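We modelled the chain as a single entity of 588 amino acids. Its sequence is:
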Amino acid sequence: MTEEVIPSMGPEFVDEGVLFRVWAPSRNSVSIVFDDGMKAGMEKGEFGFWEHFIPEDCTGRRYAFVLDGKGPFPDPASRFQPGGIHGYSEVINTGKWRREKGWRGVHISDYILEEVHIGTFTPEGTFISAVKRLPHLSKIGITAVEFMPVAQFYGKWNWGYDGVFLYAPQNSYGRPEDLRRLVSECHREGMAAVLDVVYNHIGPVGNCLPMFGPFLSERYATPWGKTLNFDGPYCDPVRRFILDNALYWLDEYGFDGLRLDAVHGIIDTSPKHILQELMEEADALAGRENRHITIIAESDLNDPRIVMERERCGYGITAQWNDDFHHSIHSFLTGERNGYYEDYGDPSFISRTLNDGFLYSGRYSHHLHKFRGSPWNGLPQWKLVVCSQNHDQIGNRAYGERLSVLVDIHKLKAAAALVLLSPFTPMLFMGEEYGERAPFLFFIDAEDRDFADAVREGRKAEFIRFGWRDTPDPDDENTFISSKLRWNMSGKSAAPMLRYYSHLIALRKSFIGGKRHSFFSAWTGGNVRLSYSNGFEVYVRMSKNASAVPDEGKVVMHSEWRDFGGRIERGSARGRELLPFSAVAVQL
């Protein structure tokens, strides 16, 4: 008896032709139609898959499906939607692409991430224009670029978390070949490329999946819409659809990793959770190709099982975001205590999070009115990704203010030292390294008026918790345009800030990244102290009063050195002064 295998979806290049395959288990007839008028019936096979083989190279042809006489509908596994979410799908032979010889990737313990949104990273907002900015990132020491979702969504601009064609790069960003080049150029610059993917829900506008089959769960829903059917009847082709999608980006586009959006919204009661199965297949691919593949999960559960080894009943995911660290830094430096920030604000929480991984590891949350999280239990600290700014924490504010607008430059540099010199895996948000002041707002280009109104009302209701009432219209083009990076590198503070971030990154590479040093942190006398067993010490002053570091070792960084825009000359007698909200690093 041979093992039954769920086939993959989408066009497959075989035997000098193309096999078109689509899953539509409850349909009585399925036809494939091309924009040149050609039409052919498809043959139904096992598990509800329909197939049709064309014995010629169909690259560049545009096609769709007719289901029981209704349609045409784009391919759910479309590789490109040149005309947008309602247009025909284009046949793209991504399997012919080859990765760079000798490129093995970057281990996550050496990751220094920068999060990038393609549409606002450059004035043009395209894959190709982003290539031109990669040398800037590699020059300051970034080792991995995390791109926010690029799967085809409605309209021309969006954050990307409402994608509806998970295999198709967004047409307003460029063609698939352009995205492949962007990944290749990241590698040429010595940086890993990580893609943000969304497997917890499908966008509501242009979502044709229900026309084909039970892709979506009838039992569960998320705040963003219905979740995928990972554990109900007919779930196996849906699971294969998602697993193949992950492998598609990693293998055919050559991405080095994926960031999984909001995995707490993925509900799966199967014997093997979809996260575990995804990681197993990613590990197998990495083993076959002898390269590093990293999977990073976003979760608000503070659950170490996400990254715990499979032998210990974990999912084995490489790493996960740690919001506790961001919230502890942000709430103290800004003084904000509204919304979920009510659980934070004590500066000692920063040291506690540095030591314990999670702050809420079984503690009671007054914001949630329940106990939250589980202990980190000595797992490697590089398995936690931390930041002082990201798209959520900036863009989910009413006015999209970056930390550079909310606090003064001294606090801004203190936050940077805490993130980049922590034992965790650090992540910057695009433009942070030079103190970008342009907002990053929530924006959409809605094709559906009812949906646009629903988004506006939803945002207003969410902001009431924070006391924000007048909010920019997310469906206004100016909201999108104002969120583009200004790249003002000649500003008074931009060059010093860039030098400072570059120096912090260089220190991290010298003393922390990829190393296996033991670590502890302490909160004493208004200082957060970070101590590594190799003698590397960092003191961050979190007080309005001055202090000093012990008279031991060599000072290798002071956030107040003049070339960083500060008040102290390098090598001066004031080199050990801890001015209010300053940071000093010492090598013993």
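As a brief sanity check on the tokenised model: The CA atoms of residues 259 and 453 lie 30 Å apart. Residues 12-93 form a domain with the Immunoglobulin-like fold (CATH 2.60.40.10).
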